[in-house]
Fold this protein.
Amino acid sequence: MSTLLETRKLTKRFGGIIAVKEVDFKVEKGVIKGLIGPNGSGKTTLINCITGVHRPDEGRVFFESRDITGLPPHRVAKIGIARTWQIVRPFKKMTVLEAVMTSALIRVKDLSVARSEAVDVLKLLGFTEELMNRRGSDITLVQHKLVDLARAIVLKPKLLFVDEIAAGLRPVEVEGLIDLLRRVHRELDITMVVVEHLMTFIMKLSDDIAVMHEGQLIAEGSPEEVAKNPRVVEVYLGMRV
Amino acid sequence: MEGVATKTLAIVLAVVVVVVAIGIGLYYMTAPPAPTPSKVNEVVIGLIEPLTGKYAVFGQEAKQAAELIVDIINNELGGIKSMGGARLKLVVVDAGGSPDEARIAAERLISENRPHIVLGAYISRMTAAVAEVTEREKTILVMDALVDDLTERGWQYVFRVAPKASMHGASAVDFVLDAAKKAGVEVKRVVILNEDSVFGTYVSNGAHTEAVKKGIEVANHITYPYDVADFSSILDTIKRSNPDFIVMVPYFSDGVLFAKQFAESGLKVKFIAGAGGCGFTDPDSIKAAGEAVLYYTNTYSFNPYRNTEWTKKVVSMFQQRYGKLPTEAGGIIFYSLFTVYEALEKAGQMFPDNPLNPDNLRQAFLSLDLNDSNSIAAQLYPSGRIKFAPNGDNLYALAVVLQVQKINGTLTPVLVWPEPQPGVSVVFPRP
Amino acid sequence: MLRSLRRREFPRGNYLWIVVNGFEYFFASGFPGSVRVFIASLPGLSGLHVTQKPLIRIKDNNSNTKTHHPRVNTRREVNKFKPTIYLQLIASNYRSVTGLYLRLIGLVVLLVAMYIAFMTSKYYLLFTTNLVFFAAIVLAWNIIGGYAGQLDLGSAGYMGVGAIVSSILSNNIGLHPLISIILGGLSSALLAGAIGFPMFRFGVREVWYALSTAAIVVILNNAVRLLIGPYEYYLRVRPIKTYDELYLATSIALVLVFLLNYAVNNSRLGYYLKAIREDELAAEAIGVDTRRYKLLALMIYAFIVGSLGYLYVVMIGYFYTYRFFDTGISVSIAILGIIGGLGSIEGCLVSAFLLRGVGEYLRTSLAHIIPGLHLLLYGAVLIALGVIEPEGIPGIARRFTTLLKTTKRPMGGVK
Amino acid sequence: MFEPTAFDLSAIVTGVVNGLVLGSLYALASLGLALIFGVLDIINFAHGDILMISSYIIYLIALSTGNPWVALLSSLALFALFGAGVYRGIIHYVLGKEPLIQIAITVGLGLILQNLALALFRAEPRALPSTLFPYPLSIGPLTLSANRVFVALVSIILCILVHYYSTRTKLGLASRAVAENREAAWLMGINVPLIYMATFTIGVLLTTTAAFLWMQIGPVDPYLGTIFGLLCWIIVALGGLGGVAGIIASGFIIGVLDSLGSMFLTPSGKYIPMYIAFILTIWFKPRGLFGRR
């Protein structure tokens, strides 16, 4: 198992507060890694620093042992790191298909090829043709999240950050999502980092888990280990989920 | 899919049908009239003026003036006698706010009304656009725009009775020098101040060259934008260049602003002479600026106080019809239209068989030599003489100077130059 | 209509070839194809296009289908496929090709019809030319304002620079008008680049972008007037003599700009720009180099507007420097673009022709009674727009169509 | 046309003083805009035209009653209604919509106001024939127009009042809370729509007072709005949304640039330095020179 992504002493400050503090975060190839932690523990900030949305104050980011610290987001996306958004960022005036095509077009030049790939991915996520031709402005939240996901995976990324995709969804939908993510992982073999603050969700999904608290990694390991880890328990009881 | 395609086609076809229908309608609307018979019974006069936008003030008054004069010619003078009492028909169109609109307006006038003579369009850039059309159509254009180079383009069918911009500037300087000599005041330095439009530039350059010619030192020549909101720093610049008098070429509201601010600034100069078009002395400015413009002067292309029968008559008629003194914009139309009248009479005599042929009309214009005794137009014109140079400018062009004075309590513009009107004397320097 | 696309013999190259209800169809992909389409399809009503790769699906079990690109495929192969899989592909491809084809025909026919209708009267011809001219400008604006979603108020500036440069080149230096037009366009594109690069580099957006562009127009206005004096500069070289030629030239310009819009709309650039308009950060995150493409859009737009500037000069016969760069013009262009619905080509055409047409007609006919009536009209329309239908003309159109076809299924709806 | 004045200290001093006097009026004129933009996050392109129309109203009332103060008070009452009406009728609908729509709708409003004025009052300039202090005021070497000084002082005082309003009064604090974080304000039990309407109205009223002061020194015509519209936005841009102090400061900066530009460059080109300064600010300090947000 080779290391796909690695951060060394990654630190990000906003004014006074330190959102991410000297984080060493590793992702092996081919796993689904869980990243949990209470709200405001710096999970999203970590992702933003890796994907170039924020520029880290200290520390470096290595992807396939190449230093990508501070690259602009579009470069990061091109070298194979995709992400979804905690709060969906829909393309309201474009149809679902067009939205997904747009990111397919990053890789392929020809429209019809892009279109067919977008169709593949959308089908994989269970979209009907009728849905594909709807505009972003008139689909449901869960569908938005799926489009968001589709936009990410049609990039054929090596590494995919899934940021709190379950937030605001009904349990049934969450169940569906878990299966879906597994399937994406299996069929398109994309390494994933799934960010959540819901223990349950992560436990079901991920091979190993990292726990963040107040900007630091406080535990790492298999779900069982993490569940037993006293700090984690303390933190999570400290702020009951 | 058939649905989409056929629908699109249907729409396109519908549009086409509609458009063509409109076109056919227009074709019958704008069918060219029969060639003018030897017996003329109507002469169409077109007037293109800015009736909207920033320049509407002038356009509106020009329109009123034209309507008045056409009435006079048709009803009192019985039309064009030499053409068997042919009547004048006035058509007014809006020149809009930009040259392309002015040009469209000109085309509309030409193609819908086929005027024999066109007047307009006050603003130089619009007039140029109109002239582009009238030249092509070989239609006489009598311009009421003063910018010099309009008559230097080699256009064949343009005439201008009014004094041109640079002359306004020059007359302002000459007037001040005369008045100073009479009053025994010594003036050596002038500051010239103008709004940076084409017109303002020409007028101020005229003043500049005249001043240099007369050995006056131009201490400073300042140009400012029409939308100036504050004259403080300009006044300060004037102060430190310490002139004996100021020649200013205002646009309109900036003139008011200047006068008000000058009054408050406590700055002292011997005299302030406005030059060009609408300045300090026309009723609207006086109404707006009030006491501030007392004893300001301004050059004028029209002398509303000229002591001739027709000037008195037309001015009083204008006043009783529209309740205000005719200003520059109206005055120019007065004598321009009467010059047109004289030219038509002349054409009728010279070419009885086809008087309205543009080249014949042009001949008629060029052969005019009008003075107070033989014409109404000359009686309305400041210099009392009208004779055209080949380029279309009036050889005897003259601008007069009005001054704002307090006549029994009310601020009124009075004539002070070249000769003061009876019972009035120029107030120089400003008290 | 599909029947008209039928073809017996195959075109050379790759293509998507499908059988639906016993008819064979060829289908195109988007740009650059679609432009080649219109050229290729002018002879013979085929509307065909040659894609780089044919898209043939082998398996069809709703999910995990893979795409591959066989060299050649015989009819027997094709016949095995179930048409339904492709319907959606067909739909979009069909739209992108035949749609362009129809619209182009429509536009050309409209232009010709207007010419036939108005050629009898110089006034209406010039009036129409003016409309066509501004339609072209609005379409150009659509690239930066409609697709990229940047509210650009600099059009007057770019037009002015292009106009002055090209007029001086053709008039005083005596270059061929076409060359000087192109050089004029280039110069304003360069200007746009010089302004746009730092602007996007420093992330100037929304109202600040609009204000900066407006400010640039003001700066240009003053600077140019100070540099060469506030006079009218007449064209001695008149490549275009009559209004018919002018109308022709303007129409050609409009058609070109229309095609360019179409090209952008059906290209990666178009998709990127729309993504930028919708959500810049999200676009970045999927790998769109937002700065680069915004700048590209800006320069394309500036180039078009700049080269159109010369036509304006020809239209009035001279250029002038006093209030030649007028923010009012920029604003009204943007207004027409917004009312036309951002990124909708037809919408822009409709608003430019209809709204401006009505407005100008009101001005010329009623100005002396109610000055500024046309501007009141614009104002009213804008407010109504903001309150009722923010998406402008296409939004309204969509409402109508949804009202009309409640039962009709969308393209792929074979269920 | 270029004839820069001799470069000497007293010139600079006078220029700066004139600039400050002018700038304080600019600041007041922009304050309403800044308030509306800051709290409602509405991009108002009709600001200049609102100023123009209220100048007309003030002019008409002042002319008919002959008393400027009556004119001020009655027009304030009038424009309180106007502001509330415009908010309910138009602005209300575009709250939180994308900037393009807001700009479109406010440009529309501006067009309507401008051309109504043109239709009603025609294009010639109107000004109050009498000014409050028609005499010069000499302080040491430099003489100023007492009228303008008065205007400047009033503007500054009003700005300070607004500062107090936004930092001390309940309404002001509430509106700032809304500006900072709308949802939080909701949760704190602040009646956001009310705050919005109140703030918009106050913004309009500030503009009306600015218009009153302008009528004390200058004329109005239907195109007055175009002079102020862009200028006010530029001042807001420079000031950022860092509160009243920022606006005053940037007002001063623009005023000084204005007067120095017309002294040492040429009045006809004075906009060039102002707008270049604006563009550079937008580039290098997108939040304005004094911006907090």
Remarks:
- Chains A and D do not touch (no CB pair under 8 Å).
- The longest strand of chain A covers residues 3-14.
- The CA atoms of residues 5 and 16 of chain A lie 28 Å apart.
